[in-house]
Structures are given as C-alpha cells and as structure tokens.
Amino acid sequence: MVALQTLKSINSDLLKTQSEISTGKSVASAKDNSALWAISKVMESDVKGFKAISESLSLGESTIAVARQGAETVTDLLTQIKGKVVSAQEENVDREKIQTDIDALTSQIESVVGAAQFNGLNMLKGTDAVDILSSLDRLGDGSVSASSISIARADLSDSAGTYGGGGVSLAANAIASAGTISNAGNTEAITFTDSTDMSAADFQITVAGSTLNFAAGTFAPTDTEELAIDQIAGAINALGLEGISAARNGSDLELTSTRAFQAVDLSFSGSSVSDGTATIAERAENVTFSAVAQVNAGDGYRVTVGSDVATYVAGEGETFEDVANGLKAAIDAAGMEGVSTRVTTNDNGERVLKIDNNSGTPITSFTAVGEDGGVASGGLFGLGNVDVTTNHGAEAALGNIEVLIQNSIDAAAEFGSAQGRIETQSEFVGKLTDSLKSGIGTLVDADMEEASARLQALQVQQQLGVQALSIANQAPQSILSLFR
Q: Where are the bilayer-spanning segments (predicted)?
C-alpha cells in the first residue's frame, strides 16, 4: 500500500509537470492557483484594452498629422499673400494683377482647409475639441477609468460666423470712447503772461521732441504779444512736424494735431509762460475692451461706424486681442473712405481698437455692443476681403495679413505639439503593454528548464516506484510458498 501510494504521488507530479511542459504555464486554470490566475486574467484584459488604445492613438496621430500639414501649407500660402500685399504698397505697380494672384492663393487656402481631413474628421474646421483615447487607468480598489487627450480644433476658414442669440448683453466689455468720430484735430493751448514784455522774455517750447528756444531780444520791443505769438506759431510750423500745426487764438498759442494714432507731448518753460507739460491726444476714437472679463466661444461684438456695422464672433480659447483684430479686419473690409484702424494695448493692459477718420466729414454714429450665444467666426476671418486695388485697401491688408499668418502659425504649432504628445503616449502604451505581458508571464508561465529537469527526475522516481511495488508484491508470494 505504501509503494502504491508513493507511485500514485509520483504519477500525479509527473502529469502536472507534463501539463506545464505542454501548455507552457504553471498556472493554467483557477484550480492551479486561484489568486495568481485571477490577477493574470485582470492583467490580460488590460493588455487587450491597451491594444485598442494603441489603435486609437495611431488613428488620432494620423488625424493630427494631416491637420498640422494643412496648417503649415496654409501658413506658406499666407506668406505668399503677404509678399503680394507688400508689393502692392508701391503705387506704380499693377495692383489688379496682384489682386488676381491674391484671389488665387485665397482659393487655394480654402481648398487646403476643406481637404485636410482624415477618415472624415477635419481639425481645420469648427471649434469643438476632439478627444483621443489615450490610457486605461486602474485604481487600487479595482475601478477603471479611461483617459483622453483633448485636441482643440483650429478653424482656419474665413467664415463670418453668426452674431447673438444668447440674450446676454456684453456691451460692458467693449466701451466706445465717444458717440462720434471727428475728422478734426485735437488742440492744446499755451497761455502767455500778459504782463511780460515779449522782447525781454526768455523761454522755450518743445513740440513732439523738437525744441525752440526764444531768448531775450528775439522779438522787438515794438512787437505786440499777438505779433510775437504769430511769429512763434510760424516757427513751429516751419519745423514741418507731420500732422502738427500752430496758430494764435486770441492771446494763446494753439497747437493742433491730426496724428491719428500718436499723442503729441508738449513742454514749455520760461518767464512768459507757465512752466509745465501737456499732451495733445491722438485723433482716433477708441473701443476699449475689458482686461478682466473672459471671452467665451460664441461671444459676439459689433462696432457701428457711420452706416457700416463690423461684427466678429469669438471662437474657443480666444481673447479680446482676437476680438479687436477681428473687428479691425471687418472695418477695413468695409472700405470706408478715410477710415483707418489699429489695435494696441493701453497702460492698464486693456486691448484697444483705434478708429481714425481722415475724411472730409465727421462720422456721427459710433457705438460698440456685444451679445453671447453666437457661432464663431473663422480663424482666417477677413481673408476673403483682402483688396489691394486701392491705397487704403493695400495699407489695411498689410496689418491684417500679419494677424492671419500668426493665427495659422499658432494652429500649426498647437497641432505639432499635440502630435508629439500623442507619439509619446503611443510609445509609452507600447512599452506598458510589453511590461504587462512580461508580468503575466512571470506569474503564470512555467520555468521550462526547471520543468524539464523535474520531468527527468520524476520519470526515474516512477521507474523506482514501479520496482518498489513489484518487490512489495513479491513478499506475499514468498509467504505463500512456505505453506506449500
């Protein structure tokens, strides 16, 4: 019985070892080791999940690569348009032919934007972000969640968008400085002391960095104050300062500036004038945008300039700089005679849209309003309105094309960064999958060298067990022979 039990035990171990060698697993089923089998099955399910994630990342990477290449192509085409716009700044060129080239390049940009899709997904149109499945996160409590890489679209169309619909006024975020846009210059007066003998006066006046010194004896004792001021005004006008003129107004020296986007600094000192400084404000009127308010997708702003209404609707992630540039492009596209624009930042960090009127008459209607709930304008808003056939259009296009190029560059850079991130994640998922497979193998795979050696040992033990059983069976036969 002992020999039989020993042989059974050896045979059982032999069968187990043969199973390990044939299957390659030391834990082939839950009965072999339920804990390790359960862990391995969970890890195997994760491996399957990460294979699907790897496929998702490959699809996402291809999609973003197409978008990046499209944005880079658009940037190159916009750069070519800029070259045409710069050429159009000269008056002795054929602007009509240049405009034809610009129109052709614009059509090519539209074609590139429309074709930049992969499997039906175009990242150069629309504003909704696209989520790409990137990881499978398992917590210690066994719960599982999926992680995604969110990629923002870059709308490189020139669509105008749709204004309003949300019902919430945003006028407080865009303040117009006045109700009219004057075509006249701004003035500042310098007052002279009536009791001062102008012939004995010693004073100086600085206008826009140019200084005039009037020493005692410059004027004759017989010169009246009015005549002296006329001579001072003539000296200032003789400086030839662009947009600046001087004239006498009663007993004051009045300086006028028609500079659109530049204030003029004045300083004056001496015995006949009160020491001090003054500033002649720029002629342009301002639309000042809030430095603290947030711009949301669909927020629309409108600026009325005379009978023309300029509209821009913000997209996802845009700022008041984008809004100001969009409104500038819309105003420039209207082609209003004598109206020019510029976007700057004031000392308070607020974006400012400046509008100047150099026409023959003042513009009596000037307002700024806003409303939420619209559909965003395209990132190349205003491209279709580039017109270099006129001096005004060529000058406006030069500033606007810079904004469009920067938008396109930003889009390509964002896509390039996203593509790099996806590639990194894809490499990590591949390495993680290999590590999981290695870990599963460590848990359940058989050590083939050990199993082979054990097989040989068990086979020897089996032979010895059979021989021992045979010897054990011979003992009763020997006893029986004694009775015979």
A: none
